[in-house]
Each structure stands twice: as structure tokens, then as C-alpha cells.
Design brief:
This protein has a single domain, classed as Pyruvate Kinase, Chain: A, domain 1 (3-Layer(aba) Sandwich). Strands 3-2-1-4-5 form a five-stranded mixed sheet, sandwiched between helices. It is elongated, with a radius of gyration of 29 Å. By secondary structure, the chain is an alpha/beta fold. Helix 1 packs antiparallel against helix 5. It contains five helices and five strands; from the N terminus they run H-E-H-E-H-E-H-E-E-H.
Length: 290
């Protein structure tokens, strides 16, 4: 009955694994719901910022506000890659890294020097593996990112952009469209390009401005950039948890299918063993009677 004992051991092992993946699926579902709530809560403020800047913007302002400066020929840019600190999320991090590599290749192909900034252990591990030097790296941001986290990531980049040391800032993140649709996306956050009316901004509004439109823009533009990075952080967290939930659900379902196969195999082996034992008993009895 060695085969039967081996099968029973495998069944116990798969059952334990299924309990773990099922628990991880439930945890990821709970975290995803909270992350999704943060994504939804961040959108009205972002839309309001976008509407105000779009209404106040005029081409001549680019001469007075460095964050609106549009470089004629970019020479150096920063690319911020957002990944997770943990795995078990399917191809989530691999897809983000693939998107970052594609953007780096595209920019460097145009003769632009790219400074890579990485958030998350998974992205950091990849670039260490390929031997690419990083401008900055962060692994302390949790699955509950804050506005302060976003400010820490982008503050120095804004200073460098204003000083002319950078000609652009890109963020690679997971855009949370729905639980099943979280594609890796690249957004350019600097220079600030206010959305046009055709891009979905609301109709022109008549604002009462105090102390002045210029004073308001000087405060709003940095806030707009910080908020863009904050949204990228919360959407990436939501995408990570959605990917982990899907991966753990698939693992749980696969474990269930494997258990069904192992149990059928065990039952057939056990039935064959019982049949053999009965045949041996009947043969022995017949031999005694003879």
C-alpha cells in the first residue's frame, strides 16, 4: 500500500496549500476593496485640479511658470517605475517592468538620457539583476500610500525640472480601470500639459480669482504634479491586489482540480488493493478445501 500512502500524503499537502491560497485570496480581496475606495476618492480632486488649470491656462503662461515649460528637444528625463514589494501577483510586476523597458528603449533611441527611479522591491530586484544604475530607489512605501509619499517621490524631480536639469518626468504604473483591467501605463507628469476640452475637461467656467490667476497657478501646478503621482500610487496598489486576488483564485481552483484527480487515483488504487486482498483470501480458502 506504499502508493496509497504516497497519494494520501500528496492529498494532505495539496489541501494545506489550497487553504493558504484561499486565505490569501480573501486577504487580497479585502485589501483590493480598500485600495479601490482610495482610487475612487482621489478622482474628484484630480478632476477639479485639472478643470481649474485648464480654465486658467494660456500659452503665454509657459514663459512665467517653469513647470509649464515645453522643451524643444529633451536631453534628459526621469522615469519613475512603480512596482510592488511582494510577489504572488501573477505577471503584474513583469508587465510593469516590460512597459518601463519599452519606454526607456524608446527614449534612449531618440538620444534622450533616462534617469530611472524605482519604487518597490520587485522593480529594484530586476534592475539590480540587469546591472542598471538607479537614480533613486524606495521600498518603504506600503500598500496604503499617502500624499506625503507622492511628494517625497516627485519633489526633487520638480526642483530639477525647474532648474533645467530635467526636460521631462514619466511615471510607469498600473492604471486601475476595473478589477480585470489594470494595464501598465506611462504618463508624462512634467511638463504639465493641461487637458484640452476635447480630452474631457469641463466647459469653461467663470472663476473669481484671489489674489490672482498667477498666484493660484503657482500653488496649483505643484499640487497637480503631486496628485498625479499619488493617483498613480493608489491605482498601482489597487492593480496589485486585483492581480494577487486573481492569481490566488486560480491557484485555489487548480488545487481543487488536482485534489479531485488525486482522490480518484487514490480510490482506484485502494479499490484495486481491496480486490487483490479478497482474491488472495478466496484463493487461500479454496486451497484449504482442496
Amino acid at each position: 500500500m506504499a502508493k496509497g500512502r504516497e497519494l494520501k500524503g500528496r492529498i494532505r499537502s495539496v489541501e494545506n496549500t489550497r487553504k493558504i491560497t484561499r486565505t490569501m485570496e480573501m486577504v487580497a480581496t479585502s485589501k483590493m476593496k480598500r485600495a479601490q475606495d482610495r482610487v475612487v476618492a482621489a478622482r474628484p480632486y484630480a478632476q477639479a485640479l485639472s478643470d481649474v488649470i485648464s480654465s486658467l491656462y494660456s500659452p503665454d503662461l509657459a514663459e512665467r511658470f517653469p513647470l509649464l515649460r515645453q522643451p524643444v528637444k529633451p536631453e534628459r528625463v526621469a522615469l519613475v517605475l512603480l512596482t510592488s514589494n511582494r510577489g504572488l501577483a501573477g505577471a503584474f510586476n513583469a508587465n510593469l517592468i516590460k512597459e518601463a523597458r519599452a519606454r526607456i528603449t524608446e527614449l534612449e533611441g531618440r538620444g534622450v538620457k533616462v534617469d530611472v527611479h524605482v519604487v518597490g522591491k520587485k522593480g529594484l530586484g530586476y534592475f539590480k539583476y540587469v546591472g542598471r544604475a538607479l537614480a533613486t530607489q524606495r521600498t518603504e512605501i506600503t500598500d496604503r500610500p499617502t500624499a506625503a509619499d507622492a511628494a517625497e517621490i516627485v519633489e526633487q524631480l520638480m526642483v530639477d525640472y525647474v532648474a533645467g536639469r530635467l526636460d521631462g518626468v514619466y511615471v510607469v504604473y498600473s492604471k486601475f480601470n476595473s478589477v480585470l483591467n489594470t494595464p501598465p501605463t506611462t504618463d508624462q507628469v512634467l511638463p504639465v500639459t493641461p487637458p484640452s476640452k476635447k480630452d474631457g475637461a469641463s466647459a469653461q467656467r467663470d472663476y473669481l480669482l484671489f489674489p490672482s490667476g498667477e498666484a493660484i497657478l503657482s500653488e496649483l501646478l505643484p499640487s497637480y504634479v503631486r496628485n498625479a503621482v499619488y493617483r498613480a500610487l493608489v491605482e498601482t496598489v489597487a492593480g496589485e491586489q486585483a492581480a494577487r486576488r486573481t492569481a490566488m483564485k486560480n491557484a485555489t481552483d487548480n488545487a481543487g482540480d488536482m485534489l479531485n484527480v488525486l482522490r480518484r487515483t487514490y480510490n482506484r488504487a485502494r479499490q484495486a488493493q481491496i480486490t487483490q486482498e479478497i482474491a488472495e483470501i478466496v484463493g487461500g480458502a479454496a486451497a484449504l478445501q482442496g
